[in-house]
Write a structure and sequence with these properties.
The chain is mainly β and 120 residues long. It has no helices and eleven strands. The strands form two sheets. Strands 2, 4, 5, 6, 9, 10 and 11 form a seven-stranded mixed sheet that branches. A hairpin with a 5-residue loop joins β5 and β6.
Length: 120
């Protein structure tokens, strides 16, 4: 099977920075797109950023210029560097990856989520 484990969340003041990591492990042959989502209390989960295996990226408008998604394919890890954080960035952040397993099955996997809290 495949597991995604996130780390790096926490409490930070507005204007501060955090770096999230998400490491995939298990029966992995390759990983296609990797993404970061977030879900604030009472709101729907939203896509924050995505990166292809070739390194092409996309961001939701609200984080453009502040967040940077990157990946290390050798480590099967995706990162989210978050700068100039705002209270409205407070949410549980989830990573998601499209994984080709060694049995050739392609499936989407989710991490357990990491809390990011930005105080005013």
């Amino acid at each position: 099977q495949v597991q995604l484990v996130e780390s790096g969340g926490g409490l930070v003041q507005a204007g501060g920075s955090l770096r999230l990591s998400c490491a995939a492990s298990g029966t992995i042959f390759s990983i296609n797109d990797m993404r970061w989502y977030r879900q604030a209390p009472g709101k729907q989960r939203e896509l924050v950023a995505a990166i292809t295996s070739a390194g092409n990226t996309n961001y939701v408008d609200s984080v453009k210029g502040r967040f940077t998604i990157s990946r290390d394919n050798a480590k099967n890890t995706v990162y989210l560097q978050m700068n100039s954080l705002k209270p409205e960035d407070t949410a549980v952040y989830y990573c998601n990856a499209d994984v080709r397993r060694t049995d050739w099955r392609l499936s989407s996997y989710w991490g357990q989520g990491t809390q990011v809290t930005v105080s005013p």
